[in-house]
Amino acid sequence: MENWGCPAFWMSRTPVLSAFAAGKASALVIDVGGANTSVTAIHDGMCLKRSIQRSPVAGLWLSDQVRHLFGTSEPKIEVVPTYMVESKTPVDAGAPPQFKSRTFPFSIDKSFVEYENGRVITEFKESVVETWRGPGKFLSPQNEEYVRTQPGRIYEFPNGGNQMWREQRYRVSEGMWDEAAAFPTEDLPTVNKSQTIPELIRSALNAVDVDLRPNLLGNIVVTGSTSLLNGFNDRLNNELMAMFPGSKIKIHAAGLTTEHRRTLAEINKELERLNRNKARRKARESQKGIHHPKSGNGGDGGSPEPDKVATGTSRKCNNCGQVGHIKTNKNSFAPLPSFTPHHIVALSTRRTDDMGRRKIEIKAIKDDRNRS
C-alpha cells in the first residue's frame, strides 16, 4: 500500500459487503462461487464467526460433474475447444460430429488447453444445466418420469456435434441439494450430507442465537456466479419452506423468479381491485344520471378537443352539487341583457321558471350622482 501512495484503506469480509450491497445490515449470506460455497450470518454489520459454514460443492465441482456426464453418456462426448476446429458439417442430434481439426506448427501448453476446455463446459452449464425447482428431490421416480415427458434442450458443441438433454441437465446439479445424486469425481469422490446447501444453512442457523433466526430467514442474500443457474433460487425457496415451515422466508437475489411472480401477482390483484371500484363508481353515477363526456384525441400530440355534452342530459350543478335540475340544451338559456351604461347600477336576480329554465331579471336604477 505504501508503493501505491494510498493514504488509508479499510478491509472488510466478503459476506458483510454482500449484505451491504443488498441494503441489509443483518442477513444470512449464501455465497455459491467457483471454489466453494459458504453460508454466513451477519448481524448489525458484524460477521458471526461461529455461523460460517463452507463446502467444496460449488462451480468447479459442477464442472467436474459435467465432465463425468460427458464421459458416461452414449455416445461418449469428447470436448473439443473452438480453436481446434477449422471447419465442420451440420449433423443430426446424437450423430458423430464431422469436422476438420486445425493444426499448429508449434506445441500448445496444457494450461491453455484446459482453459479452453473449461470455457466449453462453462458455456454448457450456462445454456443447458438447470436446477430442479421441486417440490421434493429430483431422484424420486415420479419427478424423473415427468422430466422425460417434457421437451429437452439441444446443445451444439464447437465441433458440430449436438445432443438432446432432458433429465441429465437436472441430475448434474442435483448433488448440491441431495448427496445421493452426486457423481463421484477425482477431487471429491463422495459428497456428504453436511456439504449440501440445505445442511449448510441449517448448521449456520443452529450456531446463532434463537432470537436472531427469524430476522435472518427474512433477509437471505444469495450471491455468487453459480447461484445464477436457472431454477436455483426457486429450489432454495422450496427447501427453506420445507425446513422452516412456520417462518417467513424472503430471498434477495438477482433474477429471482419467485419474487417476480409474487410481485406480479400483487400488482394484478391491485389492478383488479381498482377495476372493480371503477365499475361500481360508474354504476352509481349512471343511476344518478351523471354523464361523463368522452375526451378528445389527447394522445396524438395535438391540442385536445373541448368536451362535448349531449343535448338534454342532466349535469351536476357547480353551485349546489345536485343532479337533475340543470339541462344542457343550449336553447334553454335566456339571452344575456344588452350592455348597461356605466351610469346605471344593475341589480340582477336569478330565478327559475315553471319549465326549469334560468332567467335573469335586471333592475336598472339611475345613479343620482350623475344628475345635473
UniProtKB/TrEMBL annotation:
Residues 276-294 have a biased composition (Basic residues). Residues 1-27 form the signal peptide. Keywords: Signal. SUPFAM superfamilies: Actin-like ATPase domain. It comes from the Eukaryota. The keyword Amino-acid biosynthesis does not apply. InterPro entries: Actin (IPR004000), ATPase_NBD (IPR043129). The keyword tRNA-binding does not apply. Belongs to the actin family. This is Actin-like ATPase domain-containing protein. Residues 273-315 are annotated as: Disordered. It holds the Pfam family Actin.
